[in-house]
Each structure stands twice: as structure tokens, then as C-alpha cells.
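Subgroup meeting minutes
Present: P.N., E.W., G.H.
Scribe: E.W.

1. P.N. recapped why we're keeping a running log of single-chain structure predictions: easier to compare across weeks, and new members can see raw inputs and outputs side by side.
2. G.H. added today's entry (301 aa).
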Amino acid sequence: MTILKAFMNRHFTPPDCVAADVQRALEEDIRTGDLTALLIDAKQQAHGRIIAREPAILCGQAWFDEAFRQIEPSVQLTWHMAEGDAIEPNQVLVEMSGSARALVTAERTALNFLQLLSGTATTVNTYVKAIAGTTTQVVDSRKTIPGLRLAQKYAVLVGGGVNHRVGLYDGILIKENHIATAGGVTPALEHARAIVSVPDIAARAVAPFIQIEVETLAQLQEALSAGAKMILLDNMSHEQIAQAVKINVEQFARQAILEVSGNVNLDNIRSYAELGVDRISIGGLTKHVRAIDFSMRVNAI
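Output recorded in log:
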């Protein structure tokens, strides 16, 4: 099963988000029609190819293909690289042949998806490589481009990262504001367990997880004593994180998965991973837009 199919099976139900994403993008771009494409004879056929201009991890083939399919199903596409491949400058990624009008009309939407998702996958892969040899995972967040969360979450997987919750519906993350208004760390955890025990929630194919964010070692101790299985260490110093790992290992037999968040970048991520945490979450994987430089060249045939 491909990464895309596995992701869709877990996180989405029909209609397929690829088709829906592309449909929205094409409607936004074309509206009542591509006026410039009318310069081209309706019967003109053309050949096009996409060329990489920089190193990257290729991601987004399904969205690219769907853009051409929705404009003109008869367009033929031949991929020379596979999803998730590391690509180098000047490599030809894919060739297209068919209606010249269709090629130029679908071009921008198809490239937007391919460039964005390849950018996300490439960024994630850079972080993953930075902590190679450790057991720490690189994790994403809900800080995504509105309307493209599933696409970006998929790109994180292609880049070698791990998905956190997709939305507010598939996991409970108890943050400082929840703790402040729910009566404290222990009451918040108790309330969360009651929520996931409700029959219709407990019966879901993928049970919602419970994670709690702590800002101090005292909160960590309380969360562990209250039975927390997933703990987010928010904006802690290296010294605090090292102590948190020690407490979890020595006093609670590795009871909780420990995740670090806040102030992590490529320069310091390895130093966090080497402290022995299980996961490092980075909002910048998806909230900072990066578009890989791909170009499309079309010739009449």
C-alpha cells in the first residue's frame, strides 16, 4: 500500500482530498475560462516536461496528475521519478503530451502542488537527516496552510517525518489554557480520559490519544503521577529536558512518550535529540511555505 493510500484510509473518507484540493485550486485559477489559452488553436497538440532546478524530495504526484486529469483526461503523463525520490538539478521529472491548451491551463495549478509538497517533504527530510542515528522522531503540527492540511501532512510522511494529530477531532492535546480552565494538570487528564471513554469515541477505528503540555518539572511530575502516557515539554531548556528524561526513565520506567516543542531549528535539533526525547515537533515544517524550483517547458507537435 502506498503512503498516500495508507494516509487516506486512516484520515479521510470520500470524496478523495486530492480531487477536492485540485478542484478548488482550478476553480480559483480559471473561473470562467483561461483567456490566454485561447491564443492557441483548439486542435494544437503539444509535448511538455518538468525539469528540476534544485535538489529536493519529490512529492505531490497525485495532485499534479489530477490537475491535468480534471482539465483534459486524455493528456498522457510519463513519470521518470517516483514519489519520495531524491532528485537533482536538471533532472526531467515527468513528460506530458496532449492538448496544448490543456497543458498551459493546468500548468500553474499542477506546479503549485508539486512545488509546495516537494518543498514540505524536502524540509522535513532535512530535519530527519540532521538527527540520523538517534531514535527521535520529527513530528509535525496543526500549523498548516488553510485548506491544505491533509496534503501537507502527507508530504511530511513522504519526507520521513511523523504526523501529530490531523485536527481537533483525532487527539486531545491539553495545553496551558486548558489546564488553567480545567482545574489543573490532574483534573484535566481525568476529564480527558472520561471523554475518550465515551462509547462513540472509544469505538473509533483509531482511538484518540491524550497528550498534555507541561512547562515546568513540577507539572511533569504531576502529569506522570496522574498516569500521563504522552507529554509535551514546551519551551524547556536543555537542562530541564535532560532532567525530564531522567525522571521519566528512573522514576516512572519510561511511562510516557516525551516530545519537545519550541525554539527548535536545524542548528540545534540534534542537541535536543541527543537528550533522549522520543519526538521533536516543529511547526515550521508546514507553516513556512517553501516551493521547490521546477520549470515546465512546452513545445508544439
